[in-house]
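Here is an idea for our session: we take a single protein and study its fold together. To get us started, please write out a protein record for me. Start from the sequence, derive the backbone structure tokens from it, and show both lines together. Go ahead whenever you are ready, and we will take it from there:
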Amino acid sequence: MTDTPTDHLKPSFRSDVSVELVKHSAADSDVLWAARVSTAGEQSLDELTKDPERSKGLINFLMRDRHGSPFEHNSMTFFISAPIFVFREFMRHRVGWSYNEESGRYRELQPVFYVPGRDRKLVQEGRPGKYVFVDGSDEQHELTGRVMEDSYRRSYEAYQEMLDAGVAREVARSVLPVGLYSSMYATCNARSLMHFLGLRTQHEQATVPSFPQREIEMVGEKMEAEWAKLMPLTYAAFNKNGRVAP
């Protein structure tokens, strides 16, 4: 990274998030050898070479009766691009998670900003604890996009003006909004991911209702799709037992 600002960039706008599984060590067999060590000792390592399908009943038992620690012996690392306000909610999840995010102190932040898509419900109706979101009108969507884009452009111009004047990046970034996109690595295990999904997604099989902000739910849905492919038996047991983390 150079010490001087790059040429001014034109702001761009997105309504999506991106999630990439960049590294993993996660399989249903990880749950089985971790669980069976309590009765089989070192022989539990035999599970590494066996088909976990024959032991899906054990995985379901562990999930149902909330024996959670066997679900921690695995790892998944995701690279996530999303608005800053999503990451501030994300980092409420601290147990079983590790994060490293790009820094506005050390790099010039790129002008990529979040504007809700047309399918994003805009209007909140009801009081806290008993509210719903409903579709906005065409006028509300036009207003939201126009006002947000105008605000983003002005804030990034102010940011660039300070950088051009030699103001440190860590100071100049203060004018940028939480709708700016950031990126981070997030590492978790299946148990911590299940807890995240139980709180940050809505699902017809969930026995405990959740009311996530749509943008963090979008991230959760993409992470869930990747995890489901790695640990299909664990994922099925999670859904079967109400999507409550063990």
